[in-house]
Amino acid sequence: MKECDETVTHKNKRFTLRISDELANKLEKEAQRLGVSKNALSLFILEKELDNEQKKK
Description:
two-stranded antiparallel ribbon
């Protein structure tokens, strides 16, 4: 499985996510379907996951 590095930028902070090519392609297709950037979709997903983790505690 090949890996892909996705760079996400938020409030002048840059994060690098290492994901599989398959997941990167799914992310890109979903972002296109929703009419948003991969960056915005990645941040939305990460924020939801962090909120879910916080609620579990």
